[in-house]
Structure formats: C-alpha cells, structure tokens
Design brief:
7-stranded parallel sheet, 18 helices, alpha/beta, 2 domains, binds ligand NAX, UDP-N-acetylmuramoyl-L-alanine:D-glutamate ligase, about 40% helix, Rossmann fold, potassium, 11-stranded mixed sheet, 18 strands, about 500 residues, metal ion binding
C-alpha cells in the first residue's frame, strides 16, 4: 500500500530527507528538476518545439528554472522562461537557480501583469507558477494569468501540481487555475488526483521519483492509501491440492427480477469466475430458464422459497441487491437478513431499500459490505457538494457502523471500519456500462465466500475487477460486463502466478 500524504506531510518528508540523507535543499530541487525532465522528454522528444516555462518565485518556480536549464542541456533550443513577478517574496533556492540561469544562454522575460502574455505563442507550456505551497484560492493577477494561459490553448505540463490546484481537501466545480494536459508530480500522487473534480485541472498525472526517504513516508500517519499490485498478490491464495468445491465456500446471490434478471446472471457469473466453490442465485421464478440456460454451474433458489429459510448459515457469503426491485417483499427479506445479524454484501436496490429505512442502516451487521455508486451513496447518507465531503462521510459511516463502504467511481474509495481509505487504481472509461456494478458485487462475493476477510475481499475484488477491465480495454473500445466477468479467472491466475 502506498501512503498518500498531504502537502504538509510532503514538506516534512522533504525536510527529513534534506537533514537525514543528507542532501542540500538546492540539490533536492535539482533532483526534482531532473526527474521532471526525464518524464517530459519521454513525452515530448521533439527538441525543436518552443517551450514557455512560467515560474513563480517560490520553490515551484525554482524547479521551473532548473528545468529550463536542463532542457537546454538536453538540446531543447527554444526554451524561454517567464518569471511571474506578482510578489516581491522569493525563496533562497529560487534565487540560486535564477543566478545560475542568468549565467546560461536561456532566454528570459518578466511578467509584471497578466496582459504581458498577449504576444506569447509557444508550442508547449510548463507551469511552475505555484505548487504545493498554494494556501488560498487564486484571485487577482494570478487568476487572470491562469485564465490567459488556458486561453492560449496549448499543451501544458504542470510541475508537481497545476497552479491553483489544492492537493487535498474539497475541490469546487468552478476551478480557476491552470488546466494541465499532464502533471508530473514528485514522489507521490496528490490525494486529490483521485477525486473526479481533478479532471478540470489535469488530464493525467505521472509520478517522478526524487528519492525522498521512503521509510519516513511510509510511516506517516495517513487516512489515504493507494492499493498496489503487490498488495493483491499478498492477499490472494493459490488453490490447494486435494481441495474440493466445499473448500471454496458457498455464495448466495439474491438478485434479479422480471425485467432485471441480467443483473442476477452477471453477479452470479462473476462470483463463479472469482472462484466460489458453489454459487446459488436466489431469483424469481420468471428467471429460472434464463439462469439454467446461461449459467449451468449456478444453482437456483426461488425467492419465495428463500422467504421460508430462517437460518442462512450454510452460506459463507450472502449478497443482496443487483436488479432486486424495491417492493415490500424484498424489503421484508432484507430486514430479515439484517435481523439475523449475518454480514452481507449489499448493492443496488438493496441499498435503495436501505435509503428508505434508516432504522435498518443502524442495525447493519458488523463487517457488512456496501457498494454504492454516487447516487446510491447520497440517497443513503445525504447530498454532498463535493467528492471530498462524500468520502469524509463514507469514512465516518464505515467507522461508526463498523462496515466496509465501497464508494464506486473511476478510482473507487474503499472505506474500512478503522477509518482508513484504500483507493483502487485500476479501471478505465471503457468499463462505463450497465452491469459493471453487478459484476463487482459478484467478484467481492466470490472472495468473501472463499473466506477472505471483508477488507481483503473488497480491496482485492476492486483491484481484480478494474485490472480485468484494463486488460480488455487494451484492445477494445468498450468492455461489456459479461466479458469482464468471463475474464476474471484469467486475471486472478496472472496475479497469483506473477
Ligand atoms: N525542498 C523542497 O521543499 C522541495 C520542493 N519542491 C517544489 O516546491 C514546491 C513548493 O514550494 P513552496 O513551498 O515554495 O511554494 P510554492 O512555490 O508552491 O508557492 C510559493 C508561494 O506562493 C504563495 N501563495 C500561495 N497561495 C497563493 C495564492 N493563491 N496566490 C498568490 N500567492 C500564493 C505562498 O506564500 C507560497 O509560499 C513543490 O510544489 C515543488 O514543486 C521540489 O523542488 C522538491 C523539493
């Protein structure tokens, strides 16, 4: 798990490295500039392009000056630095790099006001005006300058963070900073890169390693972690010799209705391909033929019969919700399962039923797993203006109710009962189609059935689900839910044998 740090924590990591490595602050800046240039050159190898580097007078600007020098050294002829002179304050490292640049043949100009930008027509822009030192929203000349840079409509590479972008905390939808094509940030991604509103500030990001003290960084107290492939490899177990279907658990998927039987099929299919020993789908009678035809390995239990079962102890996992419908009978069923105090995987319509029954939310069995998307989440826990606020609520509810909340998005937030948030890095827009959530529920259920603890099942389930989609998207414009379900077993094999 990669710890994700706030800007203040990153500053501590910088300082710790400077004192303990030891390395002079100016040399660390040089290292950052080198790391940036290495990434930049990989993308933009045409040394003939004209590059405008906008530098503030803090350390972000200091990086920009060092980058200018290194680009010249690397044969980029048309580099020009624009010093943004809106404040008299400058840092010591900025001053040293300015002196170094004065001694080189780099072209330089001063921007005293945003209007000075009028006649600039570069091919590329590097934004090093304000970095992680941002302490208030952009106003006045800075906001004006950001607007003018955006109006140039050029490819912008941001150093560490785009000017005006807060690395953590609530992001508003009226972002007024520099809009970057790519942000090359140092050592760690910023927490806010995983929040949807960041799309207004940067299309993508790349992390450049500047050799800060990793031990120190990993030990920082944080609520945010980024899941890595090696974490999943540690979680997943190989199939055992002499094992049989009973070894891998029995999952009950309560899903589907007259017009939504597909959801039950998709969740059951994913559960099967994730490796549950037995999968039973609890469905309405109208879905029997479909189930028996499409998924011969899955057993059927008619919903009316299930109503009579009082002790669902024979299942290692019970999932409820995909395509379920929100009628009174399903509400009674959900209530009886919650009252039986068995941990559940709760999705889709079961979440919608819960949203109408706050009394049931309070009684949710500990270690239950909720998998809402944005709208389902807000129905459950109230409207939120920003994703940051939404994730704060998810963290608080997961802790208070001692449940796992899987807040689904491009980067899914897995909120655990201990208050920690694990951000899932896999998945892609080709997966944005109906049925994907049903497949995720089935994947998580398959792992719970195999006796993985709730947190492991969810962290691994989200990763496998996204990774399977990423592999398919390499060759496809869109990935359908059933294709994804069918490919899960292949991806788990890759993860357990790599
Ligand atoms: N040794 C270090 O600390 C390292 C720092 N690095 C760079 O340093 C950056 C951080 O540098 P700084 O802390 O000097 O800060 P910045 O260069 O981001 O900002 C400079 C100053 O701008 C002012 N400011 C903040 N918000 C403003 C606003 N809305 N309008 C106008 N002025 C505003 C603040 O007073 C701040 O000190 C990182 O993003 C990174 O690029 C890298 O060189 C790696 C090493």
């Amino acid at each position: 798990m990669l710890t994700l740090l706030t800007s203040a924590q990153m500053r501590h990591a910088d300082q710790f490295t400077i004192v303990n490595k030891p390395i002079a602050s100016i040399d660390l800046m040089e290292k950052a500039a080198r790391a940036f240039v290495q990434c930049f050159i990989r993308d933009e190898f045409d040394a003939g392009k004209s590059i405008a580097i906008f530098c503030g007078k803090g350390n972000n600007g200091g990086d920009g000056l060092a980058i200018a020098h290194l680009l010249l050294v690397n044969g980029y002829e048309n580099v020009k630095v624009y010093i943004v002179n809106f404040s008299a304050k400058q840092t010591a490292d900025f001053a040293i790099n300015l002196q170094r640049l004065d001694e080189s043949r780099c072209k330089k100009a001063i921007i005293n006001q945003p209007a000075d930008l009028k006649h600039i027509k570069p091919d590329l822009i590097i934004d090093a005006i304000l970095g992680s030192g941002l302490n208030k929203p952009l106003t006045g000349d800075y906001a004006e300058l950001a607007r003018a840079i955006n109006k140039l409509n050029k490819k912008v590479y941001a150093v560490d963070v785009p000017t005006g972008f807060f690395a953590e905390g609530s992001l508003t939808s009226n972002y007024n900073g520099v809009k970057a094509y790519k942000t090359i940030c140092f050592q760690r991604p910023k927490i806010n890169f995983f929040f949807p509103e960041s799309a207004l500030a940067t299309e993508k990001y790349e992390v450049a390693n500047i050799e800060l003290d990793e031990d120190f960084i990993q030990k920082q107290d944080t609520d945010f972690y980024l899941t890595e492939e090696k974490d999943i490899q540690k979680i997943l177990k190989k199939r055992k010799l002499f094992s049989h279907k009973g070894t891998y658990g029995h999952a009950l998927i309560i899903a589907g209705n007259t017009n939504t039987m597909g959801a039950a099929l998709l969740a059951s299919m994913a559960c099967l391909h994730t490796g549950a020993g037995l999968t039973t789908a609890c469905i309405p009678e109208s879905g029997l033929t479909a189930l028996n035809t499409a998924l011969p390995e899955v057993m059927a239990l008619l919903r009316v019969e299930y109503m009579r079962i009082e002790h669902p102890a024979k299942y290692q996992c019970i999932a409820i919700g995909p395509g379920l419908g929100i009628d009174a009978e399903n509400e009674r069923l959900l209530e009886s399962l919650i009252t039986a105090n068995r941990e559940l995987v709760i999705d889709a319509d079961a979440l919608n039923i819960l949203a109408e029954r706050p009394d049931l939310i309070k009684k949710l069995p500990k270690h239950s797993i909720l998998t809402p998307h944005l709208k389902e989440f807000d129905r459950l826990f109230g409207e939120h203006d920003t994703w940051w606020e939404r994730v704060q609520t998810a963290k608080a509810q997961a802790r208070q109710l001692q449940i796992v909340i899987v807040l689904k998005n491009q980067y899914t937030f897995v909120c655990l009962p201990d208050g920690k948030v694990y951000i899932n890095p896999t998945g892609n827009p080709a997966m944005a189609q109906g049925g994907m959530g049903d497949v995720l529920t089935g994947t998580i259920s398959g792992l719970v059935a195999q006796n993985y603890p709730a947190a492991d099942a969810v962290i691994a389930g989200c990763y496998i689900h996204g990774q399977t989609g990423d592999e398919l998207a390499k060759e496809q414009y869109v990935v359908t839910a059933s294709q994804l379900a069918l490919n899960i077993a292949k991806e788990i094999k890759v993860l357990t044998t790599r």
